[in-house]
Amino acid sequence: MAAACYAFLDMARWLVLAFVIAAAGPAFAGLDCDPEAAVKDLEAAAKDKAKAADAERNYSFLCAEGLAAKWKPRVGKACEKILDRDGEKGNPCVVVAASAGFTKLGKHDLFELVGKIPEDPIEYDGGVGYRKTDLYAAMGDPRGSAAIIEMWKAAIPRAEAREKKHRQSMADWSSWRQSAAVNLGKIGDADAKLFLEEQAKATVDTHVRDACNDAAAAIAKRIK
Question: Which of 47, 66, 128, 161 could form a disulfide with 13 if both were Cys (CB 3.0 to 4.6 A apart)?
């Protein structure tokens, strides 16, 4: 059920992109956002469940992803109320709050909930907003590094099998690894550095190799 809910949200994000990609002005993934209006919509939805439909229609949950730190307290307060009232399954506040840097909101373990979000590194369907690895990095939890590496390692055998089949696109796998490498560069430890160095040597994808080397260098600079 949760997987279906998250899949629906991903589809909704694609629809948002299709309609607003040409939006002018400051944009988040092609969406023209007013941070204060988005937060106010979340606060209204927290006070009145009927207002959640307005927040969805205004793309306020999407616009609230990754807002500047000054909005974090208000986002956290609103999302905790929404999660308490509406439950965790498929709740957009899981992504919103995690992207704001929360690992927990009251009784809600956001790190655990992010881990349950389905995401396939081999067939990543894109969409608008934060990837799972982005959320791990945004939360800044050291456990996120191991979680990203686990996802990466688990996908390697499938990726290798697909690469042996001609006419199979590997663009999603390349894109996912580049993004994952960037995020490991932000939160990874010495083990992540070693993993990235190994992956840089193991791949023929120059974009992935460069991303891995850059991330390993970022970790080395941060942990020395």
Answer: 128
The DSSP output letter for 51 is G
* % residues pLDDT > 70 (the chain): 83
What is the chain's Cα-based Rg?
A: 18
pLDDT value, residue 6: 44
Structure tokens at 214: 């850059």
Residue 54 CB-half CA count within 13 A: 15
Backbone angles phi, psi at 118, to 5 degrees: -70, 130
AA identity, residue 191: D
Q: Which of helix, strand or coil describes residue 27? A: strand
Q: Which residues contact 156 (CB under 8 A, 6 or more apart)?
A: none
Query: Half-sphere exposure of residue 209, counting CA atoms within 13 Å on the CB side?
Result: 7
Q: What is the pLDDT of residues 165-205, one digit of tens each?
A: 766 678 999 999 999 999 999 999 999 999 999 999 999 99
Over range 13-29, report the average pLDDT: 35
Residue 56: name the closest of 26, 96, 22 by CA. Answer: 96
Residue 66 confidence (pLDDT) above 50: yes
Residues in the chain: 224
Q: What is the DSSP letter of 204?
A: -
CB atoms within 10 A of CB 105: 24
